[in-house]
Write a structure and sequence with these properties.
alpha/beta; 8-stranded parallel beta barrel; 18 helices
Length: about 475
Amino acid sequence: MVVGWPSLVMAQERYHVGVCDWMILKRQKLGAFELARTIGCDGIELDMGGLGNRDAFDNKLRDDSEAARFKHTADSLGIAVGAVAMSGFYAQDLTKKDTYLQLAADCFDTMDKMGNVEVAFLPLGGCGNSWHTDKAKRAAVVKRLHDIGEAAKARGKRVGIDTPLDAKGNLKLLREINSSGIAIFYKWQTIIENGGDICKDMQRLGAANICAIHASNTDSLWLRDDPAVDLPAIRQTLDKMGWSGWLFVERSRNTTMVRNVKMNYGCNVRTLMETFSTYPAAEVALNSQGRDESYVTTIIGRAQKATDKLGITWTPLGQNVLNIIANRYFTLNDIYAERDSLKKTDKQLATALCDSKLYRSHFGFDADLSKYLKPGEVEQVKDVMTYDVVHVTHKAYCDMIPTLTAEEKAQIMIWLKEARELAVDAESSNKKHETFKKYKGRINNYLSKRGYDIQKEREGWEQRTKQKQTNP
């Protein structure tokens, strides 16, 4: 969907995209804010901590000094707390927690400390699957929700409940609760699982009854790949309804990489931001102007292998790193193209200019990556660009010669990393492998001088490998 400039401005004011801190494995941890910034979202849905069989949440933000630390960190990183969640009630029965008003008050206090947050999340999963059809159970739930709603209203808050009902059922429930302090924390997953239409259901429920949205489906596919979620239609519906507020990614993780937080939530946040808000522009421009489109696509795919390895693809950080790597490939291509052109008239000058430009630009690549990555991550990028030959070869030497000393293993690694520094700038896959081959010769000479018979060691290694394959 193409969004014009005026629409983008309105979207920025109307919609905000966040993630649930407990789902990104940062429940009530300061690191949630830095991770949210890395992912590229506007804020987080902050959890109250575990509940279990306790009478109170395991809420560290009850401590004013700790809460102040969280608020300062959030403000310094530009990450908002869009809602505060009582996710403990996914597993705990509201009707069996006689401290429910104290629990709600604790939540409201935390909301105030984190910047006068207006929306709380209260799931009803712990009440069981049939609470809404069991008259006695439903009455108990309604009574406690009314009490919580009135307490919320007195504090200028709204508590969004998560129910298994569609719009018709939720409207009936809200009438029974009879408190403007209670609304629906709308969940797309629920409607999809019930076989309903998200757009029609939201329209029927009405904007005034939706205080926030869990904008995801169950774990299976990323939002961009999920045929059950028509994001442009949902955006159009919410626009027509005049709804505004927070959309939080709870799930929609790719089950083939379910623990890769940055990739899963980075991709889902980016998809939502591109539909509902504005995705942060990369600081590093892609130098693709004037280049063949298919070549650029190939290079981007090659660069993405590195950001995939780091688990940062689809995040603003990943976009900057991807562009740096792609630009390095473009630069290398330009240097070698110039060399090949000059070779037609002056081979010596062509080689000298090529070597000079490679040397001068090599360290700039490291410096550019270091603005965004830690030293170990920069090494991972170079490993991807050189097919991980360093580690594959080092492991092969260690397997081939089990008696290598720690000093010898370290020396082999030093030379392989030196080879990688040259190979990363080589013009082709063959040239990269040729570079490593030269260093393997140096390593073999070094080991021979230290008394190793390389040929015998290789034969013994091959024999051991065959035996393992025969008798696994």
